[in-house]
Amino acid sequence: MSARTAGTDRPDRPVLRIAGSGPRELGLDRGRQARAGIARAWSVYEKLFETVAAQRGRTVDVRAHAERTVEATRAWAPELVEEMAGVAEGAGIPFWTVAALNARTEILAEAGAPRTGECSTLVRTGPGAGRFAGGQCWDWHEELADAWHVQTVAGGPHAFAGITEHGILAKIGVNDAGVGVLFNILGHDADGAAGVPVHLVARRVLGAAGSFAEAVGMIAGAPVSASTVLTVVTADRAASVELSPAGTAVVEPDEGGWLVRTNHFLAPALAAGELRGRREPETYDRWRLLGGRVAGRGGPDTREELAALLTAHAADGAEVCCHAPADGALGTRWATLATVALDPAGRRTAVHAGGPCTAGAADAWTEVSVPGGE
């Protein structure tokens, strides 16, 4: 089965076809397939945790924080702990390192990480929506540019397809019920590393939510300790669920059917504790620029149209498409590592390895369909 509907697979962008009869077996398969990639990812994250904490004059006990998130996850969704244990066994590494990878957002919050150049998301639903109902830039550290993969996962209540980092169970994608998830990190004064990791919330939604309402309820009920916004998108509905230790809020599309998300809270009650926007106000610039671009227009029908909407650099007024500087220390070199488009009706995810400004050609994209819907 080809991972791409046009062109050939990129040799530097693996597609993992993960399958198993249960959580442990899914984890084992992931660990075995991604063993080398997990080791590379961990070698960077181990340094990143230490570097970011030192920049803030702090130290961070990564193992202790990871183990606390495991206990929170065990109480909320024990099958995810079993799956992580399978990853550790399959990859031949300690369980707590897999837990730390999945809790990387929470551990970085403890370390005091600045989040310059994070993700930007566009979603359009309702009359005038295009086939690709939502998509985003995924911005992260350039040093981790080879530490992620495209994936399909089959073996739980719902199969899904999308992208994630090596060793992390899920991030962005769509499942066989047509429920899609997009992902933007937020920041709140109360953030830390004691609750369920936000990446594991995304994993549970993709693997277990059979409807829009079920997905929104699942996210809103997650006992998290770090902030994020998960945007749920189906063929006909969308909403962003803002999560933080201070509470949750559901943000609906605007009157034109658009949801524009960057890296600050939109719900007034949660915005009172805003951290990310105070540290790096460029999130508001990206939000305003994208909002102006999509006002009054229909949704994108193609991946290339979505990429064009997301293509904006500093000279345009905001750096939606992020490029790392040629030099700089670990923790300061941000880049758009992937551009992702979701087609919930078609149960497929399209992924470009890089920023939207280089995603114009049809053979620049890898498309994966949810297992069973191909």
List keywords for this structure.
374 residues; alpha+beta; Penicillin V Acylase, Chain A; eight-stranded mixed β-sheet; six-stranded antiparallel β-sheet; 12 helices; 14 strands; globular; disordered N terminus
The gist of it:
This protein is α+β, with helices and mostly antiparallel strands and 374 residues long. Helix content is 34%, strand content 22%.
Characterization of the model:
This protein is globular. It has twelve helices and 14 strands. The longest helix is centred in the first third of the chain and has 21 residues. The strands form two sheets. An eight-stranded mixed beta sheet has the order 1-4-5-6-7-8-9-10. The chain is of the alpha+beta class and 374 residues long. Helix 1 runs parallel beside helix 4 and helix 7 runs antiparallel to helix 8. The chain has a domain of 255 residues: Penicillin V Acylase, Chain A.
List the helices and strands and how they pair.
Blueprint: E1 15-19, H1 23-33, H2 35-55, H3 62-76, H4 78-91, H5 95-102, H6 104-111, E2 120-124, E3 134-141, E4 148-154, E5 160-165, E6 172-175, E7 180-185, H7 198-208, H8 212-220, E8 228-233, E9 238-244, E10 247-251, E11 258-261, H9 268-271, H10 276-279, H11 282-294, H12 303-310, E12 334-343, E13 348-352, E14 365-369
Parallel strand pairs: 1-4
Antiparallel strand pairs: 2-3, 2-11, 3-12, 4-5, 5-6, 6-7, 7-8, 8-9, 9-10, 12-13, 13-14
